[in-house]
Specification:
- The protein has one domain.
- By secondary structure, the protein is mainly alpha-helical.
- Helix 2 packs antiparallel against helix 7 and helix 3 runs antiparallel to helix 6.
- Helices cover 75% and strands 0% of the residues.
- About 4% of the residues have low confidence.
């Protein structure tokens, strides 16, 4: 079951352990291990969140959010989304995504998604893409000065369209 206390402890232990690893002549190996560990942690958190939350409500919230967007708003938002999706070739291929996806096409794709589709999508994201997204989110001004559990909650809500968005 999803427990924020366990996630926070895991995050702390992961960062602590990965910073303590020292392979003097194999720095790239240490960096790869650190990236893989952090990615595994982030993927585990995202999947735990997907399992805990009401998936239909998450999906409905995302559909409502897309429906509320004007065409220019959707296009601007999708430009940013496409910048990330390009780095996830498995997702692009599986869902036949492209640079100029229309709002109607996006709604159709989101409408067909299952919880398992989302879990598989999390697994298929390249480690570097996921870590970069996390770091970008953590560096936003709205995150500064907030406890880690609030920061993680904000990221999950934005990433998955949780209640209140």
């Amino acid at each position: 079951m999803f427990d924020m206390k366990n996630i926070i402890l895991t995050v702390i232990l992961t960062f602590f352990c990965s910073s303590m690893i020292a392979f003097p002549d194999k720095q790239s190996t240490a960096d790869q291990f650190k990236a893989k560990t952090i990615s595994l942690l982030l993927k585990s958190c995202a999947k735990a969140y997907l399992m805990k939350e009401d998936f239909q409500a998450l999906k409905n919230n995302n559909i409502k959010a897309i429906n509320r967007m004007t065409k220019p708003q959707f296009e601007a938002d999708y430009v940013q989304t496409w910048a990330v999706l390009q780095k996830c070739p498995d997702l692009v291929t599986k869902y036949r995504l492209r640079q100029n996806l229309t709002k109607k096409e996006a709604l159709k794709i989101v409408g067909r998604l299952t919880r398992q589709d989302c879990m598989d999508a999390v697994d298929s994201m390249p480690d570097k893409v996921l870590i970069d997204l996390f770091n970008d989110s953590m560096n936003k001004s709205e995150m500064q000065g907030k406890p880690l559990n609030e920061q993680i909650s904000i990221i999950m809500k934005k990433g998955f369209g949780a209640k209140g968005n």
